[in-house]
Amino acid sequence: STPAFAVKEIQSNTMGDTKTGEYKPQENSYLNTIPGPALAQVFLETIRPFVEQQQQQAEAEAEAEAAIEMPKIVYLQAQRWGSGLPAPKSLVKSTVDICGTTYASEFNTLSMVFPRPTTTTSSIHCSEMDFVADDA
User: Model-level pTM?
Assistant: First the structure.
């Protein structure tokens, strides 16, 4: 997921009622049809180059008796986008306020951000890059 994509999803289905501010419970009818499949698809697209690289290495080493396959999703359940992973303010280029919560919509650095392997870093905008948290 990218910061811009997460903000778009949060804006389309906020965590609180936009008029009353009342918390909206997470409903399976939304979670299992919008964010779950979207995140699963992006995950598979992100790991595909690494799986293909492993297959090529196995073939080069004559160990390709069993094909290395993309993982099969056997269970899918998602959480709605929220503020569980706030980014350090020093890394945030722009933010969006949604129902009283501030979300990072773009980073000003490549720290915590990793380009997808199929695209060169110089050709993509920071709001289009994947990001991860560092537990260190």
Answer: 0.56
